Amino acid sequence: MLKTKKKFILGRGPIKRSKMRWPVRLAAVCALLFIPWQAYVLTQTSDVTARVKHKLLGVSVTVGDTGPAPAPELRNLADPLHDYGIAIGPDVLQLDDAALQKRLAAMQAVGIGWVRVPIAWQDVQPRGPNDYTWTAYDRVIRALGKYQFKMIATLYSAPVWAKGACSAACPFANANQFAAFAARAATHYQPMGVQIWEVWSEPNTAASWQAQPDAIAYAKLLQATYPAIRQANPQAIVITGGLSPHPTDDDHIAEIEYLPQLYAAGAKGYFDAVGAHPYTYPFIPSHNSQQGWSRMSQTANNLRQTMIANGDAVKKIWITDFGAPTSGTGAAATMENHRTQDATHVDEEVQAQIITKAAELYRGYDWTGPLIWTTYADPGVVLPTGEQDFGIVHADGSKKPAYAAIQAALASQ
């Protein structure tokens, strides 16, 4: 007959199994496990505080008992890597509940996963810094959540009290006031699923940043806003305002010049991704080597190159606005004649080709976030601009060729 081995506990000599109750056994096991683990940790760190590495959104960060872990600066910013969305405009706020539900259901039927939502500061705080009116946006954002869209919220347009006697496109007098609004928005909308924040839109144009675009001033805005949003929601992702591809002139700074100016002004570390609006019309993205799409990564000077040179190779470019209008006051570009001198819009075949070629190129990139198309439906009214009707459906809901082009892009992911 086999003899039973005697049991020892922490050097205290043999005891009989029948006398060792289960709580004592449990305590003994825990002690045996804890002591070598503690010794290992203390030998692996130069700090008294034990630190354990975790993975958060694809990046190693260190946490310990000395305080809350810092939010990671570098993260995987697009899930999945190649995904498509649609930008909606302020007109959606005017839809009644039934029309809003119909619009969102139709957008969902396309198959897109993302929606870019504009949130105008002047609408939320029209009367002063201590007054918030979220109702109109709450209705739209809750509806988007119901349809399980991932959202990019674009904060823009300062109220009168924040910019003084200035035109509608002036930013503000105090960046901290905008930062306070952004933090409040991040807190308010986190429970509704909003995690992605775009700070302003096209700050490199006078139309959005009067009197003149100013990279130093915009860098100060990022320096105030980024930590405010991340303190309100440590998991938030902050994107620079999407940069316009307009060449440099009296009212614009080309994006490939503006981004280096942002880095020089100290913006590094105050955004998680660069926003871009790489419009190409009347060309399709592969037809002109100097247009906005090419300047993301292909031209001698490009956005991607600037990011790499400044140590931000891991960060991505989010295409937060891209499209082509099919109506306008001037001539339409066609596949046979791009009419580069006088075209204000494209025909519906060119619009579809722009989507198709953009999607083909986009699938080959490993440095992009979602691609957001502007927009779903034509407004059905004449706008006071030289370009309009960016939708993939007409105002009556009938589909343009671009609708099928987006679905084909989605099927090819």
Describe the 3D structure:
The protein is of the alpha/beta class and 413 residues long. It is 32% helix and 18% strand. The protein contains 11 helices and 16 strands. The strands form 5 sheets. It has an 8-stranded parallel sheet with strand order 9-8-7-6-5-15-11-10. Strands 1-2 form a two-stranded antiparallel ribbon. Strand 3 and strand 4 (59-63) form a beta hairpin. Helix 6 (175-189) packs parallel to helix 7, helix 7 (215-232) crosses helix 8 (255-264) and helix 10 (348-362) runs parallel beside helix 11 (401-411). The protein is globular and about 55 Å long. The N and C termini lie far apart (68 Å). Residues 1-75 have low confidence and may be disordered.
Question: Compute the gyration radius: what is it?
Answer: 27 Å
| Largest sheet entry | 8 strands, parallel
Contiguous helical run count: 11
Strand content: 15-25%
Strand order in the sheet with the most strands = 9-8-7-6-5-15-11-10
Unreliable spans: 1-75
Which structural class matches the secondary elements? alpha/beta
- DSSP summary, beta strand count: 16
**What's the overall geometry?**
globular
SSE topology sketch:
Elements: E1 7-8, E2 14-15, H1 22-44, E3 52-56, E4 59-63, E5 84-87, H2 97-110, E6 114-120, H3 121-124, H4 135-146, E7 150-156, H5 160-163, H6 175-189, E8 196-201, H7 215-232, E9 237-242, H8 255-264, E10 273-276, H9 303-309, E11 316-322, E12 327-328, E13 331-333, E14 343-346, H10 348-362, E15 368-374, E16 387-388, H11 401-411
